[in-house]
Design a protein that fits this description.
Elements (H helix, E strand, L loop, with lengths): L1 E3 L11 E4 L3 E13 L9 E13 L17 E9 L6 H6 L8 H11 L3 E2 L18 E3 L5 E5 L2 H11 L3 H6 L1 H6 L9 H10 L3 H19 L1
Antiparallel strand pairs: 1-2, 2-3, 3-4, 4-5, 5-6, 5-8, 7-8
Length: 221
C-alpha cells in the first residue's frame, strides 16, 4: 500500500490519495463532520473524514453469473465516507484486528475491510469546469444508490481518479450526504459514523429514530 501525495492532477492540491490495492482512500485537511459527545456532559466533537472508492470484480466475488447480462460489466465501484483512522474507537480497532504499532495505512485497510462506510452517490456532484452529464449505470445498493459498473478494472480505476475531483463538493455538503438512509431499517450515514467513533449500536439508533418520528407524528395529531 503506497501513499500517493502528488495531487498535481487534481483541482485541490491538498488532497492525499492512498492506493489500498482494492480501492483508493482519499483525504484532505478540513473534511469533517460534527457529532454529539458521548453523554450529556461531553462537548460536540469534530470528526475528520475521508472517502473510499472500493473496486470489486463481481464475477470473482460470485455476485454475478458468467452468462448474466450484468457479467458484461463486472467491475463495481462503491463510494463510501469513513472517519479517518485516528477517530476510530478502541473497541472498533480491537474488533477489526488492529494491533499497537500498526501503521495508519494498515488501520485504513482494516477499517474498509471490516465495516462498511456511509455510501454516497459520487455522480451526484460535478466539479467546476468538467462535464459528467451522462450517468454510468450499475448496481442498485440497499440504500437506493446506483453504484457504477465497468467492463474492465482499468476503466473502474479511471472513474475513481476522475471522481476525486468532486469530493470537495461532497464534503462541502457533508450533512446532506450523511442524512441519507444507508439501509432499509432507516439508519443514516450519521449512525455509521457514531458506530465507528462512539460505539453506538446501529439497530438501537434506528429504533430511537423510529420512536422520535412516532412521537413527532402523535404531537401533530
Amino acid at each position: 500500500m503506497a501513499a500517493n501525495t502528488d495531487s498535481s492532477n487534481y483541482l485541490d492540491p491538498q488532497i492525499k490519495i492512498i492506493d489500498m490495492g482494492e480501492g483508493l482512500w482519499i483525504e484532505r485537511p478540513g473534511w469533517h463532520c460534527e457529532i454529539d459527545g458521548n453523554g450529556d456532559e461531553e462537548e460536540p466533537r469534530n470528526v475528520s473524514l475521508g472517502a473510499y472508492f472500493r473496486i470489486t470484480d463481481m464475477l470473482d466475488a460470485g455476485a454475478f453469473e458468467e452468462e448474466s447480462p450484468e457479467a458484461a460489466k463486472p467491475w463495481l465501484v462503491e463510494s463510501m465516507i469513513y472517519p479517518c483512522p485516528e477517530e476510530l474507537s478502541e473497541k472498533i480497532k480491537k474488533s477489526m484486528g488492529a494491533a499497537p504499532g500498526d501503521s495508519r495505512e494498515m488501520l485504513i485497510g482494516y477499517m474498509v475491510s471490516y465495516i462498511s462506510g456511509a455510501p454516497f452517490d459520487s455522480q451526484s456532484a460535478q466539479p467546476a469546469g468538467r462535464d459528467f452529464s451522462v450517468r454510468i449505470q450499475g448496481l442498485a445498493m440497499p440504500a437506493g444508490i446506483i453504484m457504477p459498473c465497468f467492463e474492465t478494472e482499468e476503466a473502474a480505476q479511471d472513474f475513481c481518479r476522475e471522481r476525486i475531483n468532486v469530493l470537495p463538493a461532497i464534503f462541502g455538503l457533508i450533512g446532506f450526504y450523511l442524512d441519507n438512509a444507508i439501509n432499509r431499517i432507516g439508519n443514516t450515514g450519521w449512525d455509521q459514523i457514531y458506530e465507528m467513533v462512539l460505539d453506538k449500536d446501529l439497530i438501537g439508533l434506528a429504533i430511537d429514530r423510529m420512536k422520535e418520528q412516532e412521537a413527532t407524528t402523535l404531537r401533530g395529531l
